[in-house]
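Board notes, transcribed. Complex of a protein with NAP.
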Amino acid sequence: MQCFPSLVLALSSLLGALALLQLSLYLRVPSRYGKHDERLCRPRGRLPARCAWFVQELPSFLVPALLLALRSPPRLEPLGCRLLCCLFCWHYFYRTFIYPFFTRGRPFPLQLLFFGTLFCIYNGFLQGYYLIYCAEYPSDWCTDIRFTSGLLLFLLGMGINIHSDLLLRQLRKPGEVTYKIPQGGLFTYVSGANYFGEIVEWFGFAIATWSLPAFTFAFFTLCCIGPRAYHHHRYQNSNCFLQCAASCSWDAFCKMPGRGREAGLEYKVKLKIIMLYTRSILTCLQLGESTAVHWKSC
Ligand SMILES: NC(=O)c1ccc[n+]([C@@H]2O[C@H](COP(=O)([O-])OP(=O)(O)OC[C@H]3O[C@@H](n4cnc5c(N)ncnc54)[C@H](OP(=O)(O)O)[C@@H]3O)[C@@H](O)[C@H]2O)c1
């Protein structure tokens, strides 16, 4: 394989377009997983969170690692370039092999899992391909201000992200689905501290690599989890938060009025009432018509 700059440009532009699409889709309505998933108690079309996060994030680690292994002769000089590729893989090693095994999240919708996995293949290829086959850095890149400041931001963002994910996890006992207001760490200042950390992390990576693919990925992250952070903030002040915080188990949650099967039953009853109304109106109309005909003939 060799470097095709036009391929990098095309894939980065598409990623930028996808970012704008995300922003327009999810600015008003949040993506439907976790606390924003109303169809939670329907078990069909869902995978346990642990399994889902593992499957979804694996390609982001595997694709660049495979590209790296298949590159012959290995070209990861200078040191800066090698480090940058390792940073990307390091984040996704954490996200694939550590995060899923500790998560206490809700089952994940298969449809979102499918698109998430596609995205991870796409982005893993773009970032890996660029760093392994195209990136050119001077031999003293490791001492460049962009590299050092970007690396520091990346590490800071990753630290915030991991710490905030840990704080969120500690809000629940195993099997619980309650929502509590996260406290401590950066949650004292930002309600979406885990998202804030991830955004800082990828902008740091973009500065350190000083590349179009990394900047578009950072922009994508901002457009994807920025609106979600905003919806999380609003959710925390809503009635639904209080309702969900009151239930302490799956069973209790699914028996809440308006949720799961009960919501389905309510819907069916409403549908029957509407049909009954429609039928009686039609009958009345027919009756009216036949009476009018009768009077006319008299
Ligand atoms: N780079 C990207 O484009 C991108 C995109 C998406 C996600 N991510 C990263 O992936 C990680 C997970 O994302 P996410 O969207 O699942 O984050 P999230 O909605 O904040 O949820 C994270 C975990 O914490 C639980 N949780 C959230 N709020 C809680 C509360 N108030 N009380 C108790 N538990 C709570 C969630 O449970 P429930 O599942 O039950 O809500 C879930 O298990 C984050 O670190 C994020 O930065 C990155």
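The first strand starts at residue 46 and ends at 47. The beta strands are 46-47, 108-109.
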